[in-house]
# Entry
Amino acid sequence: MANAVDKKEEQQVCAGGAARTGRLLPPPVGTSDWATFSRDSYCVDKTLILKDLIDSKSRVVLFTRPRRFGKTTALEMIRAFYEDESSLFQDKKIWAAGEVYRKEQGKHPVIFLSFKDVKWNTFGESIKFLNALLAPCVGKFVKAVEALELEAERDRLLRVMREQGDETDLSLSLGLLSKAVHAFTKRLPVILIDEYDQPITSASTHGYYDEMCAFMRVFLSGALKDNKHCHIGIMTGVLRVAKEGILSGLNNPKVWTVFESDYSQYFGFTEDEVAEMARYYGAEDKLPEIKAWYDGYDFGGTEIYNPWSVLRYFDCHCRPDAYWLDTSSNDLISAIVRDLPHDMVRTLEALLRDETPRVQMAKELGPYKDVMANKSSLYALLVSAGYLKVASPIEEGMCKVALPNHELSLVFVNDIKAKINAALAVGTGDIVGALLDRDADALRAAIAAFLLESVSYFDAAAEGFFHGLTLGFLAILRKRFRVLSNVESGEGRFDIALKPLVEPFPAFIIEVKAADSATDDLKALARDARAQIDGKKYDATFRAEGITDIEKIGLAYFKDKVELCNK
# Structure
């Protein structure tokens, strides 16, 4: 189809409600400046989040959502509402909600901080960078700072403004700044903190977790705990880390995660919003494709599309791709997927088969540094980060999970490949190539190399070897084969089988035997494995389906030694 954004001479109504004539407004890709793109780009109206926040009368609020799901945009819109001119909102839903909400517009000064780039190797570097972030915040209200009565408070904030603050100056700065702004303007400021958890994430990765937790606890408490100089504090992040202690002193802040229904429609696009966008760009015929690629998230019972990927889809001539995969801040979650404990690999196998495995699920993470040791926290992290969706109600700490959509399937496939190839010098590509070429010698050599490199990684145990091989097949061949393991067929259960989904590939049945000692005859064991395929009639299911081109392979190994028989 032609690029929807290049269509001309059409009269449309954008989601904000304003009639547009002529060239269509482009998707707001590449900017989170709501005040700018609400006028110059296609704008999905999420302003009723303001109504809900005003009605709630909450003092401290935390929203956790995956990256690129509109958290920064929401805070930018809230900032614009309280600071900018009313003309930005007169065609928006919040303006039509009533006079009580219109009166709040422009009423409060805003202190805005984003921690998204706090990604430093040491605590000292992070503190220096935080000073650089806080300096313009103080500078914005320098007259209020200079008017402070207490010289010590004034000097502390001025040191921060000059980027000369020490750790104590910085930890107290946000609370002192709100006090200065309130005293000078006679209005309670709104405090907005974007990606509040990024400093903790970076600290956990680079080994200064305890220092950063101690700092953030004082920093946030000073600004948000019983602060009579703050109208409302709103934070966003990927993870709920209440048990870290950095939020424990904030008098039970309202925390809205992906598991809660409140505010669920304000982060990401709903199905109606995507349908309206498709109509605007003349792409209604593309809705099934958009749904398959970018729908599937469930936030508190609300069906949600990935907003970043949907916007990129329209911006890229309606070309589907894994746009979310290329966004930033993916390293930590990818590392967690790559380093899943071996007893959780079966879950990965099931997910790559588009199944819905049942797992332990916590709604709140424990200490972030201990996530890998706690299965329920690990799965909660993957759901919170957008890798998985909850596919059934959480009952007694258990639920089913699934990959949300085709885009996330590609994300998982890439991370599973990375998991295996990071550990193996050879990887599974050589094994797959030899399989498809029906080259027994190359296959034996590739599997031998696989074993040589994976002895420590998979502990040379039969189950670990099966999982490594099966995951590799699933990651690389899942579009051409249905990868099966330990499935009943004929008179028993085969170890691994590849059922072709497209021509002209054959089916493969692989039986694996592990020797008990180095003195065992691996060649004989491989022949026994190959004979077992015929003796147990493992090919019966395939032949019943009309598949007659079947490669049968017996494998035998001991530690890093392997033999193969395919005749």
About this structure: Residues 50 and 78 are 7 Å apart (CA to CA). Confidence is low (pLDDT under 50) at residues 1-21, 456-460. The longest helix spans residues 167-185.
